[in-house]
Amino acid sequence: MEPGDQARLIVVSNRLPLVLNAREDGGWDAKASSGGLISALVPVLRRRGGVWIGWPGTTEATREEVEPALAAMSETYGCTFKPVMFTQQEMEGFYFGFSNEVIWPLFHDLFTNCNFQPDYWKTYQEVNRKFAAAVAEVARPGDFLWVHDYHLMDLASELRRMGLPSRAGFFLHTPFPPLEIFLRLPWRFEILRNLLEFNLIGFQTLRDRRNFLTCIKVLFNVRVKGTGSVVRVQVPAFGAEPAAMGPGPAQVAQTVSVGAFPIGIDFHAVAGLAARPEVRAKAQALKNDIRGRQMILGVDRLDYTKGLPNKLQAFRNALHHYPELHHRVNLVQHVVPSRKEIPDYRQLRLELEHLIGQINGEFTESGWVPIHYMFHNLGAEDLAAYYLAADIALVTSLKDGMNLVAKEYCAAQIEQAGVLILSEFAGAAAQLQRGALLVNPYDIDGVAAAIQRAFTMPDKERRERMRLLRRTVRTEDVFRWADAFLGATAKGGVAHLTNLEDYLPSAST
Ligand code: G6P
User: Fold this and answer.
1) Among residues 208, 266, 391, 400, which one is catalytic?
2) Residue ranges of the alpha helices (H) in 242-394?
């Protein structure tokens, strides 16, 4: 389902969904990045003659240099990809700075990792203005704008300031923090007020939506109507200056819809890839390499939110407490390089490699190295082979918007006998709580016990759990997510997502 009026769709995200590669002749080639977002949004863009606006992922090329590659991609996909280029100073202040050293840690509750530099905020505003100018170049009256993620929270407000009020929806891919964490942000009023310029604001889970609603109730005294997966918020008229804002009753300026829309994956694409003979053969080779031992798989971007040190410590605990695991399991941990200019990320890599060295040093015996660690980018086919080969997937995020690795693992488990161990602080926990073994990543004894439980889990229970997981991941896929979000933008639109139940830890989990 899409908005009833079939308005043209303009998608805006910090990154375009592509990877650029430099050719030897100095030109550039663009290849679509793999992932559900592009599979879900490109067909809608194609049908409705849409445009995707974003940064092409490099500061090494000029706009003129990347344009031919984007034009070729636009031709292939039947929709337009339009670049927004960054200067080095914008990269530092907007991308590394405000987006990834302020909002990213804050929204993952890790405010001690925040670097609240006032200059970052200035550049964030400037770059949001730059994105607004790129939108203004292509937008026509009646277009619907779908803005993605924490890099672009000011976009609707910038557009209005430019006199280009568009109908716009915003989807936050990360979590939204609780009030007492959000209040640390020096620009808390501005960010919230700018978000409320969108007509629809979508979150991954009810937890995130609840946090957001609490913040706007406390800071702006708004009224919330309705109780379903999409509620309506009556937003007061704000003064032009931030100083004029603050709690207190005011005239209602506009009504904003706020919903929970857990993102999914392209289930059939992942399952189809895992079923290909060459992927099956790769998976078999991986199993042979570890000589019949159970493979515990980790796939994480190098990020302090992923709980990688906790995972390693939990694995070490498991080897201490359950010696029967020796020679019978391998932790195969892929770490994908990310945001390497940020000191906390570089530091994390050193910490991990030190810890892995220690654990392997402590437990390795002739014929068995417990942790296989790879720091690299993994192609879609290789990733599917690892998912298929893994007996257990281990996700220990300290907090995560959704965690698509967990869902991809389930989709790729076409033999249906793998066990998913999942952090209860990943957004996916709400949907996957019935089939996964949920863990508190801070409880390294608890995670160790879950590893032991997964290792010894009878085949029947493994299959029952994986069947439940796959059913949810298949039904609540990325197409359903896009339909639900776009459906909620239509007048009287209904969100169709069903698996929205909140996850609250209980003594029995
Ligand atoms: C998270 C964010 C995305 C972001 C991705 C990779 O999943 O929600 O918006 O694109 O991380 O991070 P990067 O900084 O490389 O774009």
Assistant:
1) 400
2) 267-275, 277-289, 308-321, 343-363, 380-389
Place of tokens 């918007």: 401
Q: How far is CA 187 from CA 34, 80, 111, 192, 341, in A?
A: 35, 34, 14, 9, 24
At residue 212's C-alpha, the angle toward residues 344 and 101, to 5°, is: 15
Residue whose CA lies nearest to ligand 1 atom number 6: 338
Q: Ligand 1 centre and the CA of 351: distance in Å?
A: 22
**Confidence class of residue 495 from pLDDT cuts 50, 70 and 90?**
low
Per residue in 75-118, pLDDT (tens digit) is: 999 999 999 999 999 999 999 999 999 999 999 999 999 999 99
In the prediction, which pLDDT does 4 show? Answer: 43
| 3-class secondary structure, 303 | coil
Distances (CA, A) of 333 to 337, 372, 436, 444, 467: 13, 6, 19, 17, 25
Enclosing H/E stretch for 404: helix 404-412
Strand (E) positions, 153-229?
Answer: 167-171, 200-203, 223-225
> CB count, 10 Å around CB of 417?
14
Task: Express each pLDDT in 239-295 by its tens digit.
Answer: 644 444 444 445 667 899 999 999 999 999 999 999 999 999 999 999 999 999 999
